[in-house]
Amino acid sequence: MSIEDTVVTTEADQAIATRELIAELQRNKAWFFAMADEAPMGISISRDGINLYANRACLRMFGYDNPQEMTGTSQMNRVAPDYRWQMNLYINKRKRGETVPNQYEFMGLRKDGSTFPVFVEVARIRMGETTLSVAFFTNFTERKRIEAALSSSEKRYRNLVGTITDVITETDARGNFVFASPPFFSLYGVEPADLVNKTPFDFMIPADAVRCRRLFEEKAKKKEKIEGLEYTVTLRDGQTRTMEMNASPYINEKGQLAGYCALTRDITSRKEMEQALRGSEQRYRSLVESIDEFIAENDANGVNTYASPRAFDFLGYLPEELFGKTPFDFMTPDETARVREIFNRAVSRGEPLLPFEYTILHKSGKPLIMETSGMPFFSDDGILLGYRTISRDITKRKEASEALARAEAKYRGIVENAVEGIYRSLPTGRYVDANPAFARLFGYDSPEELIKAVNDIGQQLYLDPEVRKECVRVVEERGHGSFEIGIRRRDGSTGWVFNNVQAVRDAQGKTIYYEGFIEDITDRKRMEEELRKAHTELEERIRERTAELAQVNETLRLDIEKRREMEEALRQRESERELHSRKLEDLNTTLRTLLDQRDQDRILLEERVIANMNKLIMPALEKLKAASISRQAASFVGILEANLKEIVSPFSRQLSVQSASLTQTEIQIANCIMQGMRSKEIAVMMKLSKGTIDFYRNNIRKKLGIRNQKANLQSYLLAHFKM
Questions:
Q1: What's the half-sphere exposure (Cβ side, CA atoms, 13 Å) at 64?
Q2: Rounded to an integer, what distance in angstroms lies between the CA atom of residue 534 and that of residue 527?
Q3: Is this model's pTM higher than 0.70 or not?
Q4: What's the chain's average pLDDT?
Q5: CA dist 284 to 104, 240, 272, 281, Å?
Q6: Which residues lie closer than 8 Å to 449 by C-beta, 6 or more apart?
Q7: Is the pLDDT of residue 163 over 90?
Q8: How many other C-beta atoms are found inside a 10 Å radius of the C-beta of residue 404?
Q9: Inter-axis angle of helices 631-658 and 574-612, nearest 10
């Protein structure tokens, strides 16, 4: 059979003819390729999945320009990725000699990456010892489109026929029933025999029956359609339903009205829904118009189609002034560009407008900060129609937020730069916040380093972990507390802090965290310890001096008793006085010498006590009082000062008695002068200026009558006020 005798009429014929030409290929290769290249269907020859030949139709189908682009390449390059597993399965089965389908469909892959449906028929031929695969490709794109359209149309028709619940009726020219669909009988509860000589008007309430019959007669005379006729019917069980009828006239071959074909549906639910919707619309309208937010509707280009009355309160414009305009018309150019980008991005994706902030201009020109969010709405075909948005004026909120941020920054600055250590800690024993001063106090370079390093406050920072447990217990009971705590720093050194802390609790009263501040009192504690030691040493010295004085007094008492005994003996031995007068005189002289020596020793001792107190103790007490100490420590200092003054008061009282004309301050200054203190030292001790001390010195000289004399005030006081 020659090629000219072959007539190809169908795709199957083409496949058969092509297979016959493969045999001819062995006899006339040039003739075969010429014929194959002109074939309307795609043809390729491959071996083990590698392409050896492709005709022009195959090249065009897969988007290639010349055969060299396909020759020597894998057939998988023309198969969409999702279908390659199927091709590999067929190839492996052929290699194993298993049966595989000769005809199948798959998604082809063009050179440009696009895909399309392909129907392929594969034939196996032998050429010598080699087995080749000849594939015949048909582009199924148009066929698939037609099949999809037919399937969709058929589906819509079946759905329409299967789901219609409307009543279909047919009447003659007078309105008598000729036909009624099954839903009519279900609705009215009648049988077909009940419709004999009946009209639709017989099922209507009287008022609607008269109205509808008159309309029917008018339309019948003009052979016109009846559209949207609503009426009320009474069912057999007494219920009433609202119906809607659309009827078309049909004309006989003589041009006369033969009757009407009507489609009637029960719209009772729709009417009730409309009524409900009207009520709902009214409620929602009232809600929209009463809420503080501004409600608007804009199309996909941002053009306003609705604005609630609150627009005037927000922007100063009436709703009708906003119709046909976009929000961008009321923004600065820079703000317009930024907000339009947000809007266009949401429109392109059909996504909701998530809450965002922007600045808009009031009608008065005043800028307002608004926050807007919106939901898209679509047509029945899924096309974006626009956005319904809700906006609120957040200008005051933003101003308050900025003020709060400034206050917080100010507070943070105060905390960061505070000399005292400020912290927050958890009941579990970890810090959650601290300022730099707090971290430095414990030997850490930064709060972050301290928070990271300390996971057990009691064990790591307290000299005695039990102290923290006691502090926590007190704070939990009272809600707050103040403590002096011994601490251990990062480098192992120790110190003391004053800790003022309170508990922060939630609504249920559970402690969330503790917050407080600490002050380094290490130096103060050291001074208190030194003062305590000095006080102890002073008391010991006073006890020693007191014991010495007591011993001297006892000696004097014994001497006095002896003197009295001797005087008694003298009185008893008057006769012997003259004989022993010289001896008694010598004895009296000795006693006077002893008494003078006793007085001098006592004066010297008192002067030393007062001098030591004024030089060694009082300046330290004054410095301690000037230091920043706790109330308890200040109280101890006051008690100590009072006790010391009480101890030395007998000594000072002697001077006060002898100088009754002097004031208390002048007596105190005179005591200091007698102890050899200079004006500057007295001024520091008494917290007065040196000029004030000099003023008191002049008053003392004046009252003692030595104002214009060159006598030394200290020498004069010592000479005239001995005790």
A1: 19
A2: 10
A3: no
A4: 81
A5: 59, 30, 18, 5
A6: 439
A7: no
A8: 10
A9: 140
